[in-house]
Specification:
single chain, about 400 residues, alpha/beta, Spore Coat Polysaccharide Biosynthesis Protein SpsA, Chain A, about 30% helix, signal-anchor
Length: about 400
Amino acid sequence: MDSTHMGMRATNWSAPIVWTNTYNELVLANYYKKHPVTVGLIVFAVGRYLLYYLGRFLESADRFFMVNQKVIIYIMLDDFSYMPWVDLSRHRTLKIFKIKQERRWQDISMEGMQYKKEALLLMLFAVLLALTQRYSYSRKRPDVIATTGWLAPVLWEGTYNREVLEQYYKRLNITIGLAVFATGNFSKEPLRRFIKSADKYFMVGYNVIFYILADSMYNLPYFELGPLRTLKTWRLFEEEMCQDCNLRNMNNMHSKIIQCIQYEVNFLFVMAVNQTFKNNFGVETLGKSVAQLHAWWYFKKPRDFPYERRTKSAAFIPFEKGDFYYHRAIVGGTPLNVLNLIEQYIKGITDDSTNKLVSTFESHLNKYFFINKPARVLSPEYNWDPRFKTPPEIKHIKIAWKP
């Protein structure tokens, strides 16, 4: 700290008191350039303050507050109709919350503190999550794509810190759901093999609920599960058996998430039954939305991806567009995000049917993640086809695909 300023420079508990020329701005700028942060700014705009002062406050904050850092400005106001238009700079995000009318009788400062408390808790959660991600996914693998263009981690062995993640999620006491469809010949030996391997390797040490959706309860094998494991079985609706198999399955999953699953688990994975767990599939995979890279197409060029190219299809992706090609074998995220994916698929497949087009679940899945970027991307290690020659990038196969 520079000693040129004559005022008090530190508190009696050794905290610096910031004056002009008491800090090295260049050193701080270099540090935060290497360690970017997101800063929240909360402002209350009620009555005449909303009408006369908010616009000028936002314009000045946009210009001078935390320049070159990501900033989220939270505005608490009582009337949306007086919200001024503000053209924010890059790295600035605006979030607006309306103060509930039934609280208007309260003392305004008390009301403001209540909303500030709620907003601070929200921001604290975001900061903790960001710090967890920073220290958990900071390891490098120069031989692979470890981060997407929208800064989501691509999970490979060696790109995450399992110990940090375990410490974080163990405190939360979470429950993870794993849903699988068992139809026809897949309701016997393939299902038994899938559940047995999942019981051994899927989210070890955490509460897990296995959801089996089957077309017949009589063919299901007996399962002996380990501790913290629960099994639920549902029968696929008879009246929908005439539908396309994927559409029928997703309609069933849609109703089960709404009726039951969303209240039971924090995260949900929906997987194909014709695969076997080979290594730990852990909490590093948890996120708001999770997509699986296709083992074959990961090593191909985007222009060769088998996206839906018919312009009339709801799953259409132009030739010059696209990020990755995702596999239908694994999708995941929070229950509501999985629900949204399913709803978009059902809408897309229905629109295509109206236009007399036949499209696949995987094509709509890729269109969904093209528009709604996943928060976690699982590398081909998490779903590898043993028929392929294993390249050096694949260190540990988590799941083996059995087409």
